[in-house]
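Continuing the batch. This is chain 6 of the set; chains 1 through 5 are on the previous pages. Same settings as before, nothing changed between runs. Recording input and output for traceability.
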Amino acid sequence: MSCGRLAIAALALSVTACVKVDANLTIQANDQIDGSIVMAVDRQFAAEANQSPDALVEQVRKSTFHSTPSGARLEAYSDEKYVGKKLIVDQMALLDFDGGTGDDGLKIVHQDGRFKLSGAVDTAGLGAAASASNSAAARRIADGFAMSIKVTFPGRVIRSNGHPDGRTVTWNPKLGQRLDLVAESEDGSGGVTWSWLLLGLLAVGAVLALGLAVGLHSRALTALRR
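Output for chain 6:
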């Protein structure tokens, strides 16, 4: 699940590499963020290109999350196909996160009782390179491209152009496309809930008061008739 700077088209790879950028992030109501970002390359590509996997991964990292400020650490990552780095985000301030993703990267702003997410994934450059390759190379590039962004918000999601599931929104950018990320959620402060609860209590109080007044009036009329 991808994130960070998300400008994969800007990767300065000598050949269009098979890249995996996978982010899974959780926004906390106290303006902190937790989760992880995987930044990796196809290990077979690195071997065939006779390039150090670490050097290629560093290019991916710089284009995804160019710094590791307070609240983040890098760990080695590998699976059956990819090798790279995994950025662990632990109680990182949103301001630090926004600074680490660069000018064009993923941004999360907390204002007016809302968390607002914006950013862009632009892989048009990779798509063009794949189209210019022979069919086998193009197929390999497409098969090796893996990108996903999953963000969980602290409150109800109000709108997004991703795939919402409760408080979580997922985006799966496609190779050769530009995708502008948009999402907005309540901040989970409970302000709206308490407001409605207070109104409900006031309404109940008004009904009880009205009932008491009607009862007293009825008794008074009964007493007068006697």
